[in-house]
Every structure is written in C-alpha cells, then in structure tokens.
C-alpha cells in the first residue's frame, strides 16, 4: 500500500541543511502525522534529532555524500552514494513512497532520471510548478527539466500536469493551455505549432488552445504546457518581476509624509503578501513522469516549507500519481502512436 | 540630412486611431518642435486636425487603407496601400526619416520587412523593448519579430541593441547578456549554447555572459539578447506579473480598517507607479535592422504616448541609428564571416 510508505527526505540538500530539514521532518511527523525517513550523514542527523528529542520518531538512512547546491547534472551522476541517490534507492526498493529534496534542481533531475527511470511510455520527466492563481493554482510545466523538447513531449507534459491537477487540487477535467506568443493557432515557433495539432487530438485532454505570458497568473487555464527552456525563463521572470514591483512600491510609498504613515500601517500586510508570492512562485515544484514522485523544495526552504513539501509528497503518493500518469500516457499512446 | 526629415506617423493604427494619433502629432509638433507627417485617410485626418486648428502645421499623406489591429502578417502583405505601407514608402523615398505606428505589431513587422528591407548584412530585423530598470533602461531583443532564430541572429540582435543603447541612452560600451536558464556557459538549449560561443568572439561587444529571467529588471546588463519567442513570452510574463502583483496588493491593503486608511492616502502614488510600470513595459519598442527605423507604440497609446514615440523616432533618426547598426554588422561580418 503506497499510503503507508514513508517519505524519503534528503537531509543534506538545501541552503539550510541539515538543521532546518531535520526540523521540518520533526514537524511533519508530529504535526502532520506523516512518516518520514531522513537520508544523510547518521552522526550529524542523530545530533540534530537529539536537539528535538526526536531520535525515536524519525529513522535515519545512511548516505555519506551530498550534492552541493552548485553541483549540476554531471556531478550527480558521479555520486551513487549521495543522499538523493540513496533516497531514489529507497523508492525503487519500495521502502519509501516519494522523495523530498531541497537540493540542486539539476542534480535532482539527473539523479532521478538515472535511478528511478522514466515511467513506461514517458519520453521525459518534467518539473511542474504551482503558480499562485485563485481559487486554484495553475500548473506550469516543464519548468526546467528539459532545455530542449519535441512536440510529443509537450503533449505528455500536458497529461502529467492534468494528472497532478486532478489528484493534488481536485480539478476535474483540467483545462490545458499551450504557452506561445499569440492566441491564434498558427502563432509561435515550429515546436508549438506542431504541439498545437497534437494537443487538439489527444484523448482525455481538455485543450483550451494557446495562452500567452500574461495569462500565466490569471487562472485562465489549469495546466500550461511548454518546453523547459521557455518555462524556466517565464518562472524566473515572474519571480524577478514580483521582487521588482515590491521594490518600486516601497520607494513609492516612502516618498511623502502621509504616505510613510500609511506604509507603517500596512507594512506587515505587504511583507506577508510579498512572502506569499515569493514562496508560492516556487512552492510545490514536482518532478513528474518517473517511477516515483520527487518534490523539489525551494533551496532556501526552512522547516515549515520542508514539512509542507513532505505533505505534498505524501498526498501525491497516497493518491497514486504515478499510476494515474501511467494510465493517461498509455491511453495517449494507444490512440496516437506518438512513439 | 536625416535630422531635417519628418516622422511618418501612421494615423490609422492603434486602438484610439485616428483621434489620439492626430492629437499626438499636434503635441509633437507644438510642444517638441518635431516635424510630423500624418499618413491615412485625408478627409478624416483633415477633420481631426481642424479640431486642433492645426491643418497648416501637420501635412497629410494619403493612404486609403488601414490594417485592423487583429490583422497579422499575411493581411499586411496584401495591402500595398495601407497607412503603414505608405509610411514605409515615404522613408524609402527619403521623404521621412523614421516611422511611428501604434498598429498591429505583426502587420508592422511584415510590412517593414517587405517594403523597407533588411539592412545589408542583417539576417532579420528585431524588436527592441526598453525595460524600466534604473538608472538606465535594459534593452530586450528580440521581443517578438522572429519566432524562430539561429545563433548568428542572436549575435546580431546583441549588436542592434548595443547600437540602440549607445545612441538613445548614451550608454558607452553596453554590457550584453544572453537570456538562458542558468549562469554557467553550458546552460541552455542548443541555440543559446552556440550563441554563447559566437558572442564571446564578436568584435566590439562587451559580452557579460548568461542572464536569467530574474535578471531582466535588475539592470545587471544593458542589452539582453534572445530569440523572439522567448523574448515575447518573457515580456508578456512581466506585464502579467505586474498586473497580478498590484491586484494582490490592492486586496491586501483593503483588508483591515487602518489599512484602508493607509490605502486611501497612498492610492494616487500606487496608481502612478502602476501606470508607469505598465506603460514602460512596452514603451519604446523599436523595430531595428531595416533601412529605416520604425517605433512601435503600444496599441492603447493616447496622445502623450504617440508624441513620446515621435520623439524617440526623431532622436534615433537624427543620431543615425541605421548607419551605426550598419557599421557594427559590417565589422562583425568581416572578422567572423557568419553568413
């Protein structure tokens, strides 16, 4: 039963590893009732757990190596005993249901592809990011796992995202948009023009046509499919623009005396809003399409973020996201013979 | 002397054509001392000029057709007598120094390519957009003229942008960044990896390496080169994110009573800031690389925006942007034989 398998939590990845990761594990176990296994250096982790008086609540699995935050895909392949590699091993063996890591995205993707392998029929795994639209998030994928993509991959990313939207956010028959540079069918580069044709005929998909950059945060569709290059540029552009807008805002409201007063009163709300936008822009990134789900927490995650990522991983695992994706891809393959 | 040639202003393009366009022309002539020729339906334009008592100050050149805002590239090619086509003709004949249009971008690009032709050695014209960084803008190009690009084009876009930065913003030896998905040289898709190599060896260019989406608004570089697909997605993502951030902000500051009071005091400043960000995100879009400069004003431009666009067109024309680009491209071609 996937429901009862613990989350394998990479304790060595992230800017605040291992202490905030361990604190997140303890929070997930005590406050959320989740099962979590910490993967990393036993000595270090045991000490950290001792600080929380939690050595009996959170088991440790040994991994003596860790990927540095700036280590990329190649380095990760050279480290079969890294914490993320060991976490993958736990999932393959059936000892864990899903993985959470705040480590280097490139390292997680490379290790995951090598050690978990793509699901049958899946051409490439993709990173799905939940954008902070309302009432439900819009899922953008691929947010950076693949710098190059083929039209058939964009169709699969749509299905990966649709499965995620259904299971994690209870969205029935998710609307899927194709990110391009104009709303008409013929707009875009060769990749998206061909993807448009394929998406129109893909079974089990409510294809809503093209969307543009300004539609990312309007909630116009539930899933937006794009190649990992465009998706990553768009995601980081959003992040940078939010920062820019708030910096400009701070200057605008500190310019006059009554405005300063107003700013004082609103400071905490604005700070709260900014934090929400910053966190949510990257929150809930999930690597989909492998034989096992990997939740990629933001590198700067602290205990609360890690705990929330464990909840997302547990939910996706319990809902059977891998099986749901498998069904969708199989249905697509049967009617279209895309590969 | 290019300095004395008037601006050919497409009076029929834009959401508020022809009245706001005509008002912009009158403003440019009276307040800025520019020479402007209105291109469009003489009867309509004469009437509009009469309202400003300006029939003797602004000449009219007849063009009986106009491109609708939703007409794209193909339609524009079928209309040799459209206002934008006639404006191009004036520049080719030497009767105008540059063009301003608030019409359909796709139509302007297609008509400009057909009727003005690319400058010698220029593979493709590109749209440059000035992003609202400080103290000087960062120029992003291509913002959407070419959905597909080759590595050599990205090098040329860098030179087009550098010439624009030098002439319009007095930036000496502009720093050029390549938009991709990681700061290391090997990050990105095939297009940008090859462009990176070519940019490193391009004469007269201060190549500062890769930049990412979150660098677009930080002023880290003066010119950012990218293909028109990625550039357009990034630009529209910025626009959408600014709108989103301000909508969220409005909700955040109207939630509590003291906050409402603060909001009241700050309302005008916030509105002012939002307007600036919205306008500047698209303001100053210029189609570069043709035998003649075309300033693409925002479709929703009113008189002030049109007048400012005429000023930009006059400045670029007077400074000899076409010749400057020609020099740069010639120098690149001699040392590298890219084509």
From TrEMBL, chains A, B:
Domain of life: Bacteria
Pfam families to which the protein is assigned, alphabetical: FA_synthesis
Keywords for the protein's UniProt record, in alphabetical order: Acyltransferase, Cytoplasm, Lipid biosynthesis, Lipid metabolism, Phospholipid biosynthesis, Phospholipid metabolism, Transferase
This protein's encoding gene: plsX
Involved pathway(s): Lipid metabolism; phospholipid metabolism
Catalytic class of the enzyme: transferase
The keyword Phosphoprotein belongs to this UniProt entry's keyword annotation: no
UniProt name for this protein: Phosphate acyltransferase
Catalytic activity: a fatty acyl-[ACP] + phosphate = an acyl phosphate + holo-[ACP]
Family matches, as InterPro entries: FA_synthesis, Phospholipid_synth_PlsX-like
Purpose: Catalyzes the reversible formation of acyl-phosphate (acyl-PO(4)) from acyl-[acyl-carrier-protein] (acyl-ACP). This enzyme utilizes acyl-ACP as fatty acyl donor, but not acyl-CoA.
Gene Ontology MF term list: phosphate:acyl-[acyl carrier protein] acyltransferase activity
UniProt feature coiled coil, ranges: none
Compartment(s) of residence: Cytoplasm
EC number of the protein: 2.3.1.274
Family: Belongs to the PlsX family.
Subunit structure comment from the entry: Homodimer. Probably interacts with PlsY.
């Amino acid at each position: 039963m996937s429901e009862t398998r613990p989350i394998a939590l990479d304790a060595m990845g992230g800017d605040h590893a291992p202490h905030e990761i361990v604190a997140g594990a303890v929070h997930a176990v005590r406050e959320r009732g989740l099962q979590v296994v910490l993967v990393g250096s036993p000595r270090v982790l045991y000490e950290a757990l001792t600080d929380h008086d939690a050595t009996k609540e959170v088991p440790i699995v040994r991994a003596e190596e860790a990927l540095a935050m700036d280590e990329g895909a190649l380095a990760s392949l050279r480290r079969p005993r890294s914490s993320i590699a060991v976490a993958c091993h736990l999932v393959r063996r059936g000892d864990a249901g899903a993985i959470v890591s705040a480590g280097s995205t490139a390292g997680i993707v490379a290790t995951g592809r090598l050690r978990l392998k793509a699901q049958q029929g899946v051409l490439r795994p993709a990173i799905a990011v939940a954008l902070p639209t309302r009432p439900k998030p819009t899922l953008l994928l691929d947010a950076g796992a693949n710098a190059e993509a083929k039209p058939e991959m964009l169709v699969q990313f749509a299905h990966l995202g649709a499965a995620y939207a259904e299971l994690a956010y209870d969205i029935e028959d998710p609307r899927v948009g194709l990110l391009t540079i104009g709303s008409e069918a013929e707009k875009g580069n060769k990749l998206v023009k061909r993807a448009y044709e394929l998406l129109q005929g893909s079974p089990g998909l409510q294809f809503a046509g093209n969307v543009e950059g300004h539609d990312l945060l309007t909630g116009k569709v539930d899933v937006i499919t794009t190649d990992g290059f465009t998706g990553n540029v768009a995601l980081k552009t959003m992040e940078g623009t939010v920062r820019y807008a708030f910096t400009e805002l701070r200057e605008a409201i500190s310019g006059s005396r009554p405005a300063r007063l107003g700013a004082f009163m609103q400071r905490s709300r604005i700070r709260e809003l900014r934090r929400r936008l910053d966190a949510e822009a990257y929150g809930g990134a999930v690597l989909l399409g492998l034989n096992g789900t990997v939740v990629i927490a933001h590198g700067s995650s602290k205990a609360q973020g890690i705990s929330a990522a464990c909840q997302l991983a547990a939910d996706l695992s319990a809902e059977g996201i891998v099986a749901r994706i498998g069904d969708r891809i199989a249905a697509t393959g049967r009617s279209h013979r895309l590969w």
